[in-house]
Amino acid sequence: MPIKLVTTATELRAESARLLTQKQGVSQGLVPTMGALHEGHAQLARTAAEQNDVVVASIFVNPLQFGDAVDLDRYPRTLDADLALLEEQGVDLAFAPSVEEVYPGGEPMVRVTAGRLGEKWEGASRPGHFDGALTVVAKLLHFGMPGAGLQAGGAFVSGSAGGLPAYRAYFGQKDAQQLALVRRMVADLNFPVEIVAVPTVRSSEGLALSSRNRFLTQEQSEAALVLSRALSLLEERANAHEPLDLESAEELVASQPLVEVDYFDVVDPRTLEPLAENCKETPFRGEGLAIIAAKVGPVRLIDNVPLNS
Ligand code: AMP
After folding, report:
1. Which atom of ligand 1 is the closest one to the Cα of 209?
2. Domain 4-198 has CATH 3.30.1330.60
3. Whole-angstrom Cα distance, residue 120 to residue 265?
4. By the 8 A CB rule, do 86 and 45 touch?
5. From CA 189, how far away is CA 115, in angstroms rounded?
6. Fold of 211-301
7. Angle at the Cα of 143 (from 138 to 146), degrees rounded to 5?
8. Which member of 38, 41, 142, 241 is catalytic?
9. Where in the chain is CATH 3.40.50.620?
10. How far is CA 7 from each of CA 31, 41, 50, 72, 228, rounded to the nearest angstrom?
11. Would the pTM of this model clear 0.70, i.e. be above it?
12. SS3 124
């Protein structure tokens, strides 16, 4: 089915209600994005299309989460290509609102605060970033919530229990801190939505796909491969129940002069607190997350790998 582009919350509600009725759907999935879509986003959209009767993808470059106006201005915008990619994955509705539609009164006075979990790692180098990101995710989760417009017409009766349709939202493991924070927000503030995490999609050589990769030269892209290689080293050690030996993974990254590491550590996947030193020195057991951030040329890259042993 051809994708439909909507730009206002009112249209989105009406169209989602219409589609749920037409398909006798019992579930709706939301895929929030900032556009400039690649195979990573496609994977989110495909997963949402497999699991839901109606799928909405939002495309919105959120000014609230950019500390730097230049970064915001140069964020790539590729709407036509984005719509084609989403349609191919089976997305029904693309919601691409203007800044005024999302923030009609200008910058919101009341916001979601990410708290301590938002101050570490990415938050340390991008103050306010996660407050801005969570605020827009909260708004997008509300915009994309099925059912809000259904009772008015009274046409739609949902699945077995006759209640509202199931509601799921899809986030990439690639942005592990964002994912942990969205999970916390949804749990702490009782949002009626299931958060689904989608594994990181990589290039054939291992580089985690990102809209910002297009700003890397060939030489920088090759240098950036050291990030995923260092993470793979830790993953292999965890799988083999060996000590993680973070130092040798750090040395591998340090051997690449074009890569300037910001942080590299092994943390608890939920709290993002560093795991005790002894987890790195004794055979690894349990659950962890290896996280890395580095500047390669003009681009700040992040990557991570879940560790399970
Ligand atoms: P963005 O448009 O960069 O804000 O990303 C939108 C969503 O796509 C977020 O949930 C990201 O975590 C997810 N995403 C971005 N890159 C990837 C990737 N390489 N693999 C999986 N998910 C991704």
Report:
1. 19
2. no
3. 12
4. yes
5. 13
6. Pantoate--beta-alanine Ligase; Chain: A,domain 2 (3.30.1300)
7. 115
8. 41
9. 4-198
10. 15, 20, 25, 20, 37
11. yes
12. helix
Ligand 1 atom index nearest CA of 37: 2
Distance 282 CA to ligand 1 centre (A): 33
Q: Token pair of 221, please?
A: 């892209």
Cα 231 from Cα 253, distance rounded (Å): 10
> What are the distances in angstroms from CA 288 to CA 226, 273, 274, 309?
20, 10, 9, 9
- Measured CA to CA, the distance from residue 130 to residue 134 in angstroms comes to 6
What residues are in contact with ligand 1 under a 6 Å CB criterion? 33-34, 40-41, 43-44, 171-172, 174-175, 198, 200-201, 208-211
Cα dihedral 130, 133, 134, 139, rounded to 10, equals: 160
Beta strands in the chain (DSSP E): 4-6, 27-33, 54-59, 93-95, 166-172, 194-198, 259-267, 287-296, 299-308
Query: Could you tell me which residues are beta bridge partners of residue 5?
Result: 94
Over 70: is that where the pLDDT of 237 sits? yes
Environment class of residue 116 by beta-carbon count within 10 Å: exposed (0-12), middle (13-18) or buried (19+)? exposed
Residue that is written with structure tokens 């590729």 in the block? 78
Instruction: List where CATH 3.30.1300.10 sits in the chain.
Output: 211-301
For residues 138 and 192, give the distance between their C-alpha atoms in angstroms, rounded to a whole number.
11
CA distance 50 to 293: 32
Instruction: State yes or no: is 41 an active-site residue.
Output: yes
> What are the pLDDT digits (tens) for 43-55?
999 999 999 999 9
Q: How confident is the model at residue 278 (pLDDT cuts 50, 70, 90)?
A: low
